[in-house]
Design goal:
eight-stranded parallel β-sheet
Length: about 200
């Protein structure tokens, strides 16, 4: 009888170990962040898409509204092309339409090298947004940007001549990229005093 109990004990130990292994494996799979680079494929798996990275090679003349159906999206990168002014076939998007506030889980937004002129107010409603990269949008107007959740903001090569006023209110900002602009050093120094914990890259 004693030997039987030992065998049964070993059996139960193995069974418990197997159950734990299965649960752990399932948990790991559920935590995998699926990354897509093709919008059509991403739309077929809307619930699973967490990361979407699109390189627009003149395929999209405007920002595709279907992206706003990806409600679990945490990282969105929609990068344009480095258009030669002589290439009439090179097209970049010029605005982000209303509706981005639907992506309430969005943490990182990269809109580099487009031709964006202004931002939708919906960006200010993204309370989980930590990273915003608007670099190389050379005609962008930032007057309506006012999202204090942002910790990293890149405005490199945006041809800015003055600092946007909202920057002075961004108390959570840790990193600010301002390289390739035409901002006076005195303005940078004033901003640094207002945001002493922020690392500013501007030269």
């Amino acid at each position: 009888m004693g030997q039987l109990k030992i065998k049964r004990g070993k059996y139960y130990s193995i069974l418990v170990l197997c159950i734990v292994t299965v649960l752990f494996t399932s948990s790991c799979k559920s935590q995998e962040k699926l990354e897509f680079s093709d919008l059509k494929t991403a739309l077929e798996k809307k619930e699973e898409v967490v990361i979407l990275k699109i390189r627009n090679e003149s395929e999209y003349k405007s920002f595709p509204l279907e992206i706003y159906d990806l409600l679990n999206l945490e990282t969105l990168s929609f990068t344009g092309s480095d258009c030669d002014i002589r290439n009439n076939d090179c097209i970049n998007i010029d605005k982000i339409p209303d509706g981005i506030e639907n992506l309430s889980k969005l943490k990182e937004l990269y809109l580099v090298m487009n031709n964006i002129k202004s931002l939708t107010d919906g960006i200010n409603s993204l309370n989980n947004l930590k990273v915003l990269d608007l670099s190389n949008n050379t005609s962008i107007n930032l007057d309506n940007l006012n999202n204090e959740s942002i910790e990293t903001l890149n405005l490199n090569e945006c041809y800015l001549s003055n600092l946007p006023k909202f920057l002075y209110k961004m108390k959570n900002l840790k990193t600010l990229g301002l390289e390739g602009n035409n901002i006076e050093e005195s303005e940078i120094e004033e901003l640094q005093k207002k945001l002493p914990k922020c690392k500013i890259y501007w030269q």
